[in-house]
Amino acid sequence: MQSSGTQEVAAPHYDAEIQDIARYVHHYKVESRLALDTAHLVLLDTLGCGLEALRFPECTKLLGPIVEGTVVPDGTRVPGTSYQLDPVRGAFNIGTMIRWLDYNDCWLAAEWGHPSDNLGGILAVADWVSRSNRRPGGRKVGKGAVLQVADVWRAMVKAHEIQGCLALENSFNGVGLDHVVLVKVATAAVVAELLGLSEAQTAAAVSQAWVDGQSLRTYRHAPNTMSRKSWAAGDAGQRAVDLVLRVQRGQAGVPSVLSAPTWGFYPVLFKGERFRFQRPYGSYVMENVLFKVSYPAEFHSQTAIEAARLIHEQLYARGKTAADIARVTIRTHEACMRIIDKQFKAMDNFADRDHCIQYMVATMLVFHRLEAGDYTDGSEAARSPLVDSLRQRIACVQDPDFTLAYHDPARRHIPNGLTVYLRDGVALPEVVVHAPLGHRSRRKEATPHIMAKYRRHVESHFSGAILHDLLALAKDPVRLAAVDVDHYLDLYTKRDAA
Predict the structure, then answer these.
(1) What is the pTM of this model?
(2) Residue-wise pLDDT tens digits, 25-74
(3) DSSP secondary structure letters along 165-210
């Protein structure tokens, strides 16, 4: 008598999309000088953003080991703290720090995201591997080698590429999923290679990342906007590292996780559609990644804030202030309106404010600044009646040409145009900024500002010889490339306090 249960069938080959990722990770040689130079800047910028986040108690109270006081031998160091953690918890700590202030790099396409979020898992594993392999007579991990910063750069280029190429033509937000699913997939792929897994095992790890429960975007949108959006990438990174370690210990993969009828990712979570790809994996994403140079703000608002700064200066030259503004129109692109257009939404918390273009533009027009502290409850900007009144008089309108420029691979613009109407009836000329300072087309202009941003962030944590060493290495990428990862992270370790 035949069983009423599902009959077993022969396991299929891995989905082609998974095979392509595993093949790329194991066989592609990163040779682009632009990509490696950009990875150097991304590493500095991302570490600096993580250090800056340590000024905020809402971030630091999430950090550290699960069991207070736990110290893991040869464990991952968490920059700016004295924590020494297992690589899974280390990935969460580092990933949460670097994403907390929404100040690290950005990638905008059909899906949005922050490819340097992958650095949480990459650094945690690279540091743990290096410390373990350095110990005389200790158990060797991965390939048995001590990794160098150059190895981290190459892993970053590949993680950026996997996340960014998947994002180019595939809208995960369109089906309600958060972009951190791509952090989980990309981190799993590159960490598997760092840990010495075979190409087949890497495919298994990537398949496990796809089958894992995926985060809903609801914590990024009203009425549920909250701080999980700041630690979601850290969570994705720790899940990725955990899954890779399970595969390393013999856990099998899920070959047709994407395409399996009824139960696969495509039919269950992607409306039956297969992923589309604009280009093969290479180094395109790192070469074109966007830096948040000037302002800790959701990237679709960056050009609007630049325009608002220029308008503030025009108002000052006319002897006027933001109090003289009747209303403002922001000509923008579709993604901006979908994510951060919150004209009449109550600003209940940090997460509301740093994802509201009206609040950010109003703060710049009123105070001629936009800093991370302006998002906190009780801050001058959050308590300002003028900011609150003005933001409700700032309306966004979509310009189809701006949306086309946003999606055009040759431009990748994030355009915004601000028109200010004064109470005396005067309309100021529209100020349009097409590409923010962090855009590839402005990289030469931006580089000194990226380095200055890093310096500001490390100066608030370190001094003396350590500060000197960090800044000297930052300015000398050739020397930094040859530094062992564990020795580099030792420079960021706080010996006296967590």
Answers:
(1) 0.88
(2) 999 999 999 999 999 999 999 999 999 999 999 999 999 999 999 999 99
(3) HHHHH--SGGGTB-THHHHHHHHHHHHHHHTT--HHHHHHHHHHHH
